[in-house]
Amino acid sequence: MKLNVLYNNHPEDVKKYDTQTLRDRFLVEQIFVKDEVSFSYSHHDRFIFGGVLPVDGPVVLPVTKDLGTNYFLERREMGIINVGGDGFIEVDGKRYDMVTQDGLYLSKGTKDVVFHSLDKSNPAKYWINSAPAHKELPNVHIPFKDAVPTPMGNDQSLNKRIIYKYLNPAVLETCQLQMGLTQLEDGNAWNTMPAHTHDRRMEVYFYFNLPQDGIVFHLMGKPEETRHIVMKNEQAVVSPSWSIHSGFATASYTFIWGMVGENQTYDDMDAIKTTDLK
Q1: CATH assignment at residue 96
Q2: Where does the pLDDT of residue 265 fall: very low under 50, low under 70, confident under 90, or very high at 90 and above?
Q3: Which residues have C-beta within 8 Å of that of residue 76, sequence separation ≥ 6?
Q4: For all residues of the chain together, what is the average pLDDT?
Q5: Distance CA 156, CA 215 (A)
Q6: Rounded to whole angstroms, how far apart are CA atoms 228 and 232?
Q7: pLDDT value of position 266
Q8: What is the 3-state secondary structure of the chain?
Q9: Considering its fold, how many domains does the chain have in total?
Q10: pLDDT band at 110; cut points 50, 70, 90
Q11: For residue 95, what are the CA distances in angstroms to 54, 113, 114, 116, 131?
Q12: 10 Å Cβ neighbour count for 118?
């Protein structure tokens, strides 16, 4: 397993970062590595995120000394969404079929996790979030049809989109981890604008379904001191709790958000007027 470590960043320090430093501190450019587990560990809330790409054979979630536990999910929970071809995941001997955009919640205490693809020419791509957990809960398969949709925005504001909630109290119980998938309608390019912060939760965005020559201008920073990071297809960015998290792209796209923190109240956010951004 490849584990990339990202440390906490003070907002006053971030104001002084140049482009490359911003990218080094917050952006993960390669998510999927053939036949490997490729994870990043953020010291913001000890959030782990990354990808698994099984091509030539199954990929096993490893035991790693980086966590100081006997197995990966001994003290953690995990959310998974498949953004590639069809596959399946074996969890403690039980098989969960995972077609495109299916989700899976794995509880603290889950020991054996093995990732599979059905077709190596169109392999599954498992996007994964993991957070510390305090109790065991049922493992739950979340087909795309069972994710809770919430339409948002409009064509006039270029932000017409549907938010699909997977790991959310409306769907299932978790310890703290929330995950969802947001699809922008054709001809729309903004996400999460007007912007907001939520000091009570940090977040990670994973952008995908962009054309290979497309880019996202991901906005971050305190509302009065914004910065941007240029991102490409299948890249991820960390958003500390003090930062806005919004983006505008050269084409329509999809992104997955994952959150952890003090509560699981999706609408608990501090809205920011567009005219107040700087």
Answers
A1: 2.60.120.10
A2: confident
A3: 48, 67, 108, 130, 131, 132, 133
A4: 96
A5: 21
A6: 13
A7: 83
A8: CEEEEECCCCHHHHCCCCHHHHHHHHEECCCCCECCEEEEEECCCCEEEEEEECCCCCEECCCCHHHCCCCCCCCEEEEEEECCCCEEEEECCEEEEECCCCEEEECCCCCCEEEEECCCCCCCCEEEEEEECCCCCCCEEECHHHCEEEEECCHHHCCCEEEEEEECCCCCCCCCCEEEEEEECCCCCEECCCCEECCCEEEEEEEECCCCCCCEEEEEEECCEEEEEEECCCEEEEECCCCCCEEEECCCCEEEEEEEECCCCCCCCEECCHHHCC
A9: 1
A10: very high
A11: 16, 10, 9, 10, 23
A12: 15
User: Residue 1 — pLDDT band, cuts 50, 70, 90?
Assistant: confident
- Supply 151's token pair: 């339409």
For the chain, first and last CA: distance in Å? 40
pTM exceeds 0.90 for this model:
yes
Q: Using alpha carbons only, give the angle 164, 213, 259 rounded to the nearest 5 degrees.
A: 30
Q: How many residues does the chain have?
A: 278
Domain that holds residue 250: 2-276
Residue-wise pLDDT tens digits, 45-99: 999 999 999 999 999 999 988 999 999 999 999 999 999 999 999 999 999 999 9
